[in-house]
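Dear Dr. V.,

Thank you for agreeing to look over these. As mentioned in my earlier message, I'm a first-year student in the group and I'm still getting used to reading structure tokens, so any feedback on how I've presented them would be very welcome. I ran two proteins. I've put each sequence directly above its structure. The first is here:
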Amino acid sequence: MSETEPRAVSVGVLKGGFGKTTTAINTARELAHRNGSALVIDLDDNGHMTRQLGFEDEFTSGVNHTQRVLVDSEEPIQYITNVVDGLDLFPAHTELESVENELRNATMGSARLRKHLVDPLLGDEYDYIVVDCPANRGKLNDNAMYATRNIIIPLKPESGYDSGLSNTIQRLVEEAREYFELNILAVTPTALNSRIDQDTRDRGLLEQLNSLDIADEIIPSYARITHEEWDAIDVGEYEGGLPGIRFRGAIDAAHDAALPVRDYDESCDQLENYAELAQIVEQGGIDR
């Protein structure tokens, strides 16, 4: 297990609508809360995080700041904006697809995020940087993986969660590992909302994750279920908390209010799970 030190992490899964942005913004917010500051970078071409947090003007600006930094090597700090106390954002831009295209032909096109944004800021301006990745393969995703060397994979109990996980590991993580070290810090189920003592998608997702050979290494404690606990669940004798990051109205309402959950409702019981994800980032992995 790594010592606590400045660290960057990508939040990514090769499937849209799986809680990537929600996981990224709230993990980054907990890192800022615990450590004083953090930066979140929106590399998703749909700009969900940027727009959700109320920065529509930055997203549609006539100045393509992502191009200015990643392609033209400008200083990034001038394009960073504050979200809430301690948490800053490098916003996405509506023309991210053009940046993707330019990076394909750029010298060291997969190393630009690391050279021009992460390395200059990590450890000096921010101890922790979180990157919200696009949901598709490409140069922007390559940049995120190369710059951070760490990934958190969120999964929702919706149709395709199994292929979302396998595609992300095979087409993103394993392919990247042919060229550099890339650590899976955590795979987290999110937006769970159903019973797990019946045959639901929530149960199916939890069963799949907990049956992985490396479950102890990548499944956070809030989602870890032992064989004995499954037996207790099936006979109605389970007394533990509901596993996974659960759906809460406060999380949706925080989206509408353009805020992380902590700044909308500090009493939300899911903050402890985002705090555990933040601790996993701080440690560089799960420490059982």
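The second protein is here, in the same arrangement:
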Amino acid sequence: MRLQGTACAAAGLLLALATGCTGGAEDGAPAPSPAPARTTGESPRATPAPMPTPSPADPVSLPALMERGHTGSDLRLGDVLDRNSAYTRYAVTYEANGLTISGIMNIPEGKGPFPALVLAHGYIDPDVYFSGQGMPREQDRLARAGHVVLHTDYRNHARSDEDPDNDVNLRLGYTEDVIGAALALRNSGRPEIDGDRIGLFGRSMGGGVVYNTLVVAPGLFDAAVAHAPVSARPQENIDHFQRPDGDPLVAEIEEKHGTPEEDPAFWRGVSPLTYAGRVSEPLLIQHGTADDTCPLAWSREAAAAFEDAGKDVELRTVPGEGHTFGPRWAAEMDVTEAFFARHLR
């Protein structure tokens, strides 16, 4: 793990603190490594060697997603939402595991094919969310840099199909939507899209979706970036965001799945840290030191777990920046663009 910014001075201490609670599995017990996700349309490079699979997997778990035969197809361009000298912005839909998912896609002007990026946005109440809302600055900048940008709305958002159980099932469906987006890009047949060069970029809750996707479908993407991600332990997100607000969903979740004390195996099965050894893509994590929404400690723990598993991970701390990145946003996007340029060649 390459630690940048303020994390450098504390690297030794951080890794020592992380050792007792991360490593490839939680609670110090080595977790079994399930078989890689079967993703329709993957090229040969995206299929790692088979690994043992626990049986049966809890249907609400990362192993269950690993076992599933994921599909992504039927990428359809709808209305032109904007056109400028750099790119054209479209409303789009695609199919992911039987659901129609909406989003927006920016296609650069000029001769392609262009490398593609899937963007996974942070939490916005689906009741007020509108298509493409999550990462507008990033959508614009990355398209101007020569990427096809597909920003997924996720299920239950905008014009996407409904999945009534998604929230009580810890929103694992968003991981399926991101996998489906990559497969839809790869299978699109559109001359503007280079289906062999696809990156993944998420922020906040979308950073957690990035972690899940990397362990569920290793090799599907060529590289991944997470900005200010949530905790890789879902119970910490519940305790931090939902329980203090008295969210009634917490009681539903615990009634269906139990608490971490009642069913620790379930909660290990929904944490990507348990399966850190499956990741095959280089991962860049960028997190502000003044983030009071998602504590920096969460990214430090995740980066340490991936490093302990021997993965190519870089944690870059951003001095003085909060959750959304302000004065340093442009500089951090320079780093993000350079990272994708190295790995999407």
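From my reading of the second output: The chain has ten helices and twelve strands. The CA atoms of residues 175 and 213 lie 6 Å apart. Does that match how you would interpret it?

Kind regards,
E.
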